[in-house]
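Hello again, I could really use a second opinion on something today. I've been staring at a protein lately and its backbone has me curious. Please have a think about how the structure follows from the sequence. I owe you a coffee for this, so here goes:
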Amino acid sequence: MKFNSDNDNNYKNVDINTHDFSSKSISINDNNIKNTNIKYNNIKDTNIKYNNIKNTNIKDNNIKDTNIKYKIFKLANIDNNLNRFVLILFLTLTLFLSFSVVASLENQNNFNFLQENPIYKSSSSADGSNIIIPANNADHSKGVIKAHAASKVSTTSKAKLSSIGSSKTVSQKGVISSSKNLKKYVLKNKRLPSYVTVEGYRYSVPEFTYLMTKTIEYQKKNSNSRVTVNYNIKNPTKPSGTNIKANIYQSNYYKYSLKTTKYIDKYNKVPNYISRTKNSKIQYQTAVYMFASVLNYDYYKNKLPKYVTLKISSSNKINKYIPKYTRTSKTKSVPNTNSIWVQSKDFYNVNFEKLAESGIGNVFLHEATISQYGKSNVIKWAKNAAKKGIKTHLWIQCFYANGKWINPIDTSKKTYNQAQFNKILSKIKTYSRMDYIGGIHLDYLRYPGTAYKYSYSNGVTGEKAITKFVSQAKSYVNKYNPNILLSAAVMPETSSDAYYYGQNIPKIGKYLDIITPMIYKGNYGMSNSWITSTTKWFVKNSGGARIWSGLQTYKSDNNPVSLSTGELYKDSSASIKGGADGLALFRWGLTKFFNFLSLY
């Protein structure tokens, strides 16, 4: 039987003996083979890559002219002096033919590359937290996993950045969702919060009051307009009111919304009270709760309520406290800190509305989209993302391309590989100046576990090579666009990262705005506590960079089934518990969504 390829299959408990598989142009990739007996087969002219083989007997096979790469072997019995890799090739091909599967080889265009990774065992540190250390005799140039570790603008720059992740406007859905959270907070704490977060930005309660009243107005008018933010609105001078026990009908709370908006626009402060009648006044704090109750109903019913019920005395605890919130320059500039990786194949599949609703304000978009779809389309895409408050970071592969690792050191000269550095820096220059691009994200910023092998008497080392490149990358960002963020995906082995991967976290953190450790629990067979302890280490050793914990949103590379929202919530919570400033989700297409901002 002839076939061109056999990919992405699961073969278990198979007995394959005495077959002739002498076919040309055969490609066998990404298969999971377990508990299989393969004997006396003839295999030729075959290309076999990226297969996982476990508990398998492979004996007395004839394999020729075969290209075998990137195999994972566990508990495999291979006999009769055949090359181990050749046997792997045979196993994969045999399984393909046995099942008569005909398939097209999927184009792995950007993120789907294997990476070498050390073999680990679990241990405990002195303080009782879990750590990962290399197992005895582990070969750090073998063993693979599939995941990617997985700022000055010139005066002549025309890059449009003002609307990227901008807080000039917010969506009505964002305000409605945050109103629900405000009401929940008041019911639990009997007072207003110090601030309210909408789509990743913090607002004072007076500012949020304005957002709520404008949202109620738009909802009443069936308008889809985004809400313009009115900053630095002052607290009431001397709030006062009366006991309120009444149903506030839609016509009235809508009128109160319009009056409040008009008052704020005129005086740049919230009113002390809202007059219902001559002898009935709704105190400022109670009015905030009322507007939140209106939009809380809208959140669940997708429409404004006919009325809301208020039963609050003037002496209620809510009316005793006036929250004070001091806005700093940092508060205004810090964007939504949740992010997601997007491969080029999903360029036209991403739902910005879904991301915004889920509290994700950043996208790491693979640079392959530029060569595949054109720079103008990428800029248009980033502009549309910015309209939803989402910042686009272009995701660059630094020292891995076309299935091969690139050494950051020129070993022939025992100097840094400046030629490769310059190739990446040229991309950074171009991407930094593109309209609506808000970040540069560095991936494969490392060795495949072999950094320790490169150390020369002139001081050149694998570790210093990575640090030197990051410092140059930061200089380029500062030169061409200081308003964008420089981030990097790094391995999660904490203190051993510098030795094996060349990633000295405290040192490279001095040049990075964000470090994203790929804390992929599924690939490492670890628990939530590992996510927390690993995050804590990176927060403590960040070198000043913010930490966005990278999370695997599916079981593992060997079992790419999406985690349930409950599982993902627990993993995300474990990151926040460890002190993460944000989350990075790998990846679009395998992620289930909830409101990630609810974690903070």
Residues 153 and 170 are 26 Å apart (CA to CA). DSSP finds 16 helices and 39 strands in the chain. The chain has a mean pLDDT of 79. The radius of gyration is 29 Å.
